[in-house]
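General statements about sequence and structure are easier to judge against a single worked case. For one protein, we set the task of working out the C-alpha cells from the amino acid sequence alone. The sequence in question and its C-alpha cells are set out directly beneath this paragraph.
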Amino acid sequence: MTENEWDKLLKIRTTGRDDSNADQYRYPYEPTPYAVLERLANSGYIGKKNILIDYGCGKGRADFFLSYQTRCRSVGIEYDEHILDTAVSNTKTAVFSGRVTLYQQDAVKYQVREADRFYFFNPFSEDILRKVIHRILESYYENPREMLLFFYYPSDEYISYLMTEVELMFYDEIDCQDLFEGNNARERITIFSVGV
C-alpha cells in the first residue's frame, strides 16, 4: 500500500515534511515510511503487552500504526505544538486511537515510567539523545525490566554514542535497504537492549 492508502486506512493525516520549528538540536518532522513500520511491526519485538514511547512523534504515524498492528500502547512525545496539533486531531478519527497518548513536551524532561519499547527516527541532536537515554536508564534502575530501543535510519553520531553507552547492548538489526532504490546502508532499524 502507498503512504496515502495507509493514512486513509488508519483514518489519519501524517504525510509531508515540516521544517517550521527545526533547529540545530531538534530536527524536521518527516514520517517514517509505512513499509519500515511494517517491518518493525512484523519483527515480533513489539506486542500488546508493551508500552512504546515514540520520541519526536510528529503527527503520530508510528504511534497509530504500531498500536493498530501490534496492539501495543503508544506514547508520542513531541516538543513542537504546531505539529502535535495534527496528531491530536488524528486521535479524533484514527482507528485504534484509544491506545495512543500524546504529550507536547521536551523529550529531555519527559519522565519515563513503565515504557519498555522506545522508537527514534533521528528526532534530535546527539546531545539531546544522551539526556533522553539517561532518563530511560534512570527508569530502568527504578524499575528493572527488559527494554528495547529502536533507531530507524541512525546517523553515525547516534551509533557511535550508543556503542559507548555501557548499559546498552547491540541486540539486532532490521534491514530495510530492499524497500528503497539505491543501496543506502542507513536504511535499517538498529536495536539496542537494556536488561536483556
About this structure: The radius of gyration is 15 Å. Residues 155 and 186 are 7 Å apart (CA to CA).
